[in-house]
Structures are given as structure tokens and as C-alpha cells.
Design brief:
disordered N terminus, TIM Barrel, Jelly Rolls, about 25% strand, alpha/beta
Length: about 475
Amino acid sequence: MRKIILISLSVLFLAILINLAWSFQKKESINSYEKVKIKKFNISIQCWTFRKFTFFEALEKIKAIGVNYVEAYPGQRLSLDLPDTVEFIHTMEEEYIELVQKKLANLDLTLVSYGVVRFDNDPQSIRQLFGFAKRMGIENIVTEPEYDDYALINKMVKDFDLNVAIHNHPEPSKYWNPEMVLKNIVGLDQRIGSCSDTGHWLRSGINPIDGLKLLKGRIINLHLKDLNKFGDKKAHDVPFGEGIANIHDILAELTLQGFNGYISIEYEYDKESLNPSPSIIKGLEYIDSITYYKDYQQLLSFHRGRYNKHGWNQYGPGYFVLDEKTGVLKSVGGMGLFWYSKRKFKDFILELDFMCEESITNSGVFLRVPDIPISDDYIYHAFEIQIDNTKKGIHRTGAVYDAEPPKKDAFKNPGEWNHYKITFQGNNIKIELNDELIVDWDAEPRGKIKDFAEKGYIGLQNHDSLSSVFFKDIYMKELK
């Protein structure tokens, strides 16, 4: 009896230690992530959520929730109107492929991912799968290979320009530990990465933040889950924000990483499997409540894993180089203007991050450029929000150039990212630099500014070849 009591106390003590460690991690995490401006992510729903229904029924339910992206899995019965032997799978016959395409089009849904799917390590098996994915417009193939030789997979992602994401089921499955995923993908094409399942990490006793940090740069998509317990194989799903996953910090970490893939909701709780929609909707409302950029438009386009400069034009000397993976712009030479040509903006909030290469870096953000720039005349009819840490007053970082100085210095050292929030409403310009209000000014012609327009283009200045300025995360919110 005494031995049993001692064992019980030891188990209890261990459980207390685990909970204390988890609580400490969450507290430390909150301190690290509370100021992160969480971006709006592309949300999809894994059809396993509606495994009690046919694939076509699942699509109807996904549409009813208000989500536009779908992740399918192999083996789900296709339709009540067809024999129960007809399943959604990459080997299905042509007539059923066409039925799926028609159903998706009628509901205006996009099939973005497929898995978890297993396939043999031979050219015929893999090519059939990739050919199906390409035809269906699927971007991500989610799998858990039983083999370690990814040579054929590596070749196919190049041939078909598709992503392969290695999924993690709980311990003792092969990839339960993110270190094993990383070990298998290191050195391979960047389109081979992780489908990070936060719920299975939690069941295996892994803090999702640690997993995400380890796999930074190689996360293709997520199966996002919140659970009621940590380190328990029997833990079940709860709506986002009600469990122990710390969804806020997960999304904050993904924001900091510049993640642009799909976050797939996979709600697996058996007791709610006949009607998981209310819990999903509740969870989506939580995500909406913590999303900072939910009403913003990202001005640098992102498509199929790459940023591009579509909609942007360069006037004058110099140019900006774009890192297509990270979305970071770097100025080269000058002096010119990199301007967003798709449309003019009237009242808006413009937010972006910038970084100076050196203390002498000179640049700026132009507001309401009235016409297509064909000469330098635009500088007399548009406001420039200055970037230059070496100047004073109306020429210093944060100033409305040559017109209104900043109330204080709030810029960071060269090599550190700064955040501008610029509000232009009517004639009023408010400038926040690194969360400090440094300008609140009712604009008027002053200095070099002869007049200004009611609406216009926005632009980024490349000033000279002495030092570069970097921009990223350019968001626009129009005000009514």
C-alpha cells in the first residue's frame, strides 16, 4: 500500500511539474507576442471535420460556414447520389473528377490541399498523384512517407511546381517530433516542408510554438487545433481560444515568420462529429477578434508561394529588388519612386515596416501622388513621410517632409525594423512610428508643397546608392 501511495504521489508531482512548465511557457509567450499585429490568414477546412458526411455534403457545410478553401482527404464517400463505393481519391475515374470540378465551381470553393495521402515510392505512383493534384488546382499534397528517400518527391515538386507537406500524427508515429520532419526535408527543395498539426503536437507533449520555431521557413500549411489537455493522447478539440494551445501566440509566431500558406481547420471531436459547425464558427470568431489586419489589403501580391510586384511601377532612376520568398523590398540606386499603380486612395490607413541599412539611409513614403508620375513634379503636389535619421526637424524620420516635424524621435537603430502607421483622413495626417504618435497635423500647403490632391497613389522612394532601405508588410485600409 505504501509503495502504491508513493508511486501515486510521484505521478501527481510529475503532473504538477508539467503543468507549471506549460503555464510558464504560456506566460513567457504572452510577454513575447502581445504586441504582434496578427495578419489575416487564408483559412481552409479539412474535410475530415465532416467525415460523417459525403464529400459533396462537406462542401455544402464548408460554404455555409463562410470558408472558401478546402482540404480533401482520400477515401471520403463522394455523394449520396452515387454508390457508396465511389470515393474522393486521386485514382477516381474521369467522370467523377468532372463532377467534383463542377461542384466546386458551383459553390465557388477552391480545393487547395489533399491528404493525408500515402503513395508508393515509385515514379508511376507518385506521378499519378501529382498529375491529379495539378489538374485539380491543388497546391499542397499532405503525406507521411514511410520511407526516408525523398529523391522522387524532390523531383516531382520541381516537375509539377507543387508543394509536399509532411504531416505529424501523435507519438509513436514516425513524424510526431518536428525534429524528424526537419531531418527528412533539410537540403531538399523548399517546396517540401511541414504540415504542422498543432493538436497532435499537443497530444505528444510538444509546445506548438517550439515546433513552429524549429520548422521556420519550411512550414507549408497547418492543421490548426485547440485542445482541452496537454500531453494526453485522449485530449479532444475545443473552439479556438478555449483550450491550452494558445492560438493567439501561434498566429503571432506565424505572423512574425511571414507565413502565407493555408491554415486548415480540422475539428476531430467525435462527440461533435455530426454537427461541428457551431464550434468551428465560434473558433473563427475568436481568430477574427485577435486579427489586426482583418480589414486591410496587402499591396504586395502573393500567389502560389511567391510574392510579386504586380501592380507596382517604377518612375525615375534606381529600382527595388523583391525577395519573392519573404516579400522584402530593397532599394537600389536612385532617385526614383516605386508606386502602386492599381488605384488611387482617398482616406486610408497605410501600415508598413521599414529598415535602414545605415544611419545615413534616406527614403520616404509618398501619399496621394495626384497623377501618374512622368516627371519629378509630383514632389510638389504630394506629401512625403520622411525616413532619414541624420536630419533635424521637418527633414527627420517621421516628419511630413519640409512641412511638419515629428514631436519626438521614435525610430530604431539601423538593422532593426520600424513600423509606420499613417492615417490620412480628409486633410488630417496622423503618423505613428513604432506605436508612438509623432505627428497629428491638419495638412496645408507648406514648404515645397504647393498643393495636394483629395486622392492619389502611394509610393516608396529609393533615394540614392549610398545605403539601402528595406520595406515589407505593406497594408492598406480604406476609410469611409
